[in-house]
Specification:
Blueprint: E1 6-10, H1 13-21, E2 29-32, E3 45-52, E4 55-68, H2 70-77, E5 89-93, H3 109-112, E6 116-118, E7 124-126, E8 144-146, H4 148-164
């Protein structure tokens, strides 16, 4: 799995809230528009985040078993395609790694300020803050590839959460 890469995928605050209210609490798949274009493939991991009230929330991590279209996703997940979040592409989680969405896990500011990723054009970027100190959600709006140290930092946050349970 040494070729595996890590990505950060932002759900807008309204999308985050809708998914929680709709009962989407399992991270067994993700729906989006650019997974294939940025090169997400089996074995990679995708961290699901949202910027809410100026803070970064970490919803969890999906270890990718497949990147596919709607009908293939519905078949793999044994669900009706109407039950899946509308998107043109789907990342299916490796079944042994499926976890619940963690709607309240806030990433500490010290971790957020060290996150580094590549944008689609392979330009290195960091999370930007507004003048009031809040995170600017625009810096995370594109699916980005995380630098290895950043993926490790987010993994540590997840591990801390689960070690407290």
């Amino acid at each position: 799995m040494s070729d595996a890469r890590s990505f950060i995928y932002q759900w807008a605050g309204s999308e985050w809230t809708k998914k929680i209210r709709s009962g989407w609490l399992r991270l067994d798949y993700l729906g989006g528009e650019r997974f294939a274009q940025v090169g997400v493939k089996p074995g990679d991991q995708v961290f699901v985040v949202s910027v809410r009230v100026g803070e970064l929330f970490l919803g969890g991590r999906v270890v990718v078993s497949a990147v596919c279209d709607l009908h293939t996703a519905a078949s793999i997940l044994t669900r009706d395609s109407d039950d899946l979040w509308p998107a043109s592409q789907y990342v299916i989680a490796e079944p042994s790694t499926v976890s619940d969405l963690l709607p309240g896990l806030i990433v500490p500011a010290a971790v957020v300020d060290r996150l580094e990723m590549f944008s689609p054009g392979k330009k290195r970027r960091t999370v930007k803050r507004r003048d009031d100190g809040r995170i600017d959600p625009q810096t995370l709006r594109h699916l980005g590839e995380l630098m290895p140290g950043s993926a490790q930092a987010l993994t540590r946050e997840l591990e801390r959460k689960f070690s407290r349970v």
